[in-house]
Amino acid sequence: MKQPIVDYISKLLPKVKLEPGEAFYWSPNKQLITYKTSAINEDIGQWALLHEASHAILNHQNYNSDIELLKLEVEAWHNAKGLAKDLEINIDENHIQDCLDTYRDWLYRRSSCPNCGVVCIQLTPSTYSCHNCQTTWSVSSSKFCRPYRLTVNQSKQKRLQPKTTTFS
To answer: Among the residues of 19-65, which ranges form H helices?
Structure first.
């Protein structure tokens, strides 16, 4: 099943727009799945499209923490495997784990204290705090950029309060 996979996804998600682009991407705000036409006839391209369609099917919108983003990615890959089975496509488990590893590695780098190296807790979507040396640092909100960690000065540290997030 090559190009007809786009037709399958269009019929499965009639309220979601599919359009060619530079990357595979789900935009919940636009209700849009973008896909690379140059890769759609390859296994990896089909797997990526099924993964992005799964975000739409599962109504993935936003996330409040890095670990929640990883959870959404795991859910989308699990759902994509079910879609693939319906289409008689086999998604390579190693590919899934490689994709998830990029998020795991990103999360590890963001959560590692720039002062002492201990993996720490996230206070807000863009702030972490170290329970070992009391360093607080900010990270970019983008999941697509290098995880820079900017330490916050001591006076600002006192103003930051942990944010409680409820997961459903």
So the answer is: 43-57
Q: Crossing angle for the helix pair 43-57 and 4-12, nearest 10 degrees? A: 10
Q: Which domains, from first to last, does the chain contain? A: 4-108 (1.10.10), 115-159 (no CATH)
What is the mean pLDDT of the segment spanning 102-120? 95
CA distances from 166 to 39, 63, 107, 127, 134 (A): 38, 11, 19, 17, 24
pTM: 0.82
Closest CA to 5 of 18, 15, 16: 18
For residue 75, the one-letter residue type is E
pLDDT at 155: 44
What span, in angstroms and rounded, lies between the C-alpha atoms of 84 and 165?
33
> How many other CB atoms are there within 10 angstroms of residue 55's CB atom?
21
